[in-house]
Every structure is written in structure tokens, then in C-alpha cells.
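Lab notebook page, bench 4
Experiment: in silico fold of construct C2
Operator: M.H.
Input chain length: 346 residues
Purpose: comparison with the prior construct
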Amino acid sequence: MTNTSHFPEIPETAQEVHLLRYPSGVPAPDDFSIVDVPVLKPLDGEVLIENIWMSVDPYMRGRMSPRKSYIPPFALNAPMEGHAVGRVIASRDKRFTEGDLVTSMTGWRSHALLERDYLHPLPDTPDIPEQAFLGPLGMPGMTAWVGLNKIAQYQAGETVFVSAAAGAVGSVACQLAKAKGCRVIGSTGNADKADWLKNTIGIDSVINYRETDDLSAALDDAAPHGIDVYYENVGGPHLEAALDHININGRIAVCGMISVYNDREKATGPRNLFRLTAQRARMEGFIVSDHWSSYPEFVREGVDLVRSGALTWRETVYEGLNKAPDAFIGLFDGKNTGKMLVKLAA
């Protein structure tokens, strides 16, 4: 996709967000720093981009801890990484021209100089906003699709429970399941989000977990015949409630457990894990990057759903790179409905 609007001249300096220290508990603004850096002109085979949109995602919290995981931690005093949509402003590679819109892993900075293999052109879909490829048609949407299709192998007519249902991943999971012909139950902790899930997305039942003292009982009311699939984004009491009501041969796709990301001590495990055995159920974690070869298949399906109106979304947008730390921290306070984005340039 090419942006035909005027693109800026090459600036002398750019800005990057650096991580100063590994946070203890919930990250704080002073764990980050905004740093000015020189902008280098591209050499042969290089492309200079100005980022327009950047994504902040809960998985980034795991990279802010110096512990071994599926992806290395962020380096201190260096620019962090994340998905971004940018505009090519100078190119020394014939595959890219000025004005082309691309995605990359160079979020948390205003500009980036990259070799072509680290850039991916946006699909030619001028009727769809470019930032959608950071949300419902990007990594979060792909994560929802992989969890339901590849891990849970969901089927029409099944009952699907989605935690953090109004988030970037959860809201797409809800809509994919509805489009498949499933009965969908979602949980959220906010009345406005609950209203959006019920009356705009049209899921079958919504649980506001902040308004109940017994999440398992609330799920029993919403799913008296049990659940076949649980899309796990939260952990803690949500996982215990899902295990209480998982049907025989049920499946749990473990995307994340945001409730424990900022714990200073190890969280207590679910007390009813034996339900997996009793119900002959399966619980499987996954990393979306392991399935990225299926992204074209997902995009084809997702674009069709967007155009038909079966896949919609909401965005929470912070303006300016200096607001990126606040946007990220806001994920853990539930300040986003749908995708949390930072707009960096016009």
C-alpha cells in the first residue's frame, strides 16, 4: 500500500523510547526515557521509515524482566521493539519507494533505518485504515485466529468463553467465534466495555467480573451446559472458573495471563487443575510467531469479515511518542477498549 499524501523530508534527529531499568511490579513512567538520536541516510539496500502508528501489547511486559523466556528481554538503555506501521521516506532498495506503507518491529521510535528483509508492505486494501494492521488484522487478530483455529480447533455450535473479551485479542476472538456460529461468552471489568460487547459485537452473554463475588457461579449462569472452548487471556480466578465448567473433550487455548504479569511473587496455581483429567480436556499454550506462515490465510479471512461488517473494532489512541509509556502502563489498568495504539505522525 502506498500513501499518496506528502511525505516529510529526512530530519536530522529522531526520538526513541529506552528502558532504563527492569520494573518491579507494575511499570512506572520513570522506568522509561525519551532519547534523541541522529538520523542516518540509507545506504545501498537500506530503507528509512517514519513510523506513523505503534502498538503496545501486554506481552511486552515479559520482555521487561531479565528472566529466561521464549523471547529475549529488552536491552537496557536501548530502543525497545514492537509492531509499527511506517511510511518510507527514503529508499536505496528498488522494492520500496517513498510513500510506501510498511510494517516492521521498530515501534517505540519515530524513525528507523532497516534492510528490506525487516520490512513488510501493507496489503493493498485502501478501504481499510492502516492501523488496523496493528490490531484486528495484525498480530492481535492473528493471535485470536491461531488460538481458536490451530489450538482449540473450535467448531460451529460450540460454546466459547473469552476472558479480557474487550481487549485487542479477546474482541477479535469473540467475533471470529460468532462468525463461526458459536455461542460466545465474554468477560470484562467495565460496564461500557460490557455494553459494547453485548450490543455492538453481539456476543451472547457478558460477565462483568468486577460486579460478582463468584466468577464461577456467574459463568454457570451464562453457560448452564458448560463451555467447550476457553480462550485464556487472564489466568487466576478466570482459569479456575473455566476449569469448573469445561465440558468433556473441552479445549483451553492459553494466549496470556495478564493477571500475573506484574506479580512480585509467584502466583498460586489453579486449585482445580484435575478437572483437565476428569473432563478429558486439553490445555495448550502457544506463541503466535510460531504460526506466522498462516498469516496470509488469516488476512484473507479477516479482510472479508471486515468488509462484511462481521469484524469491527475499537481503538484507544494516545498521541505522541512521549505518551507511549503511559499507553503501555494503561494496559494493566484496563484503560483500553480494543487495541491500544500510539499515533506518532500524520
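Observations: The radius of gyration is 21 Å. The domain at 139-289 is CATH 3.40.50.720 (Rossmann fold).
Next step: discuss at group meeting.
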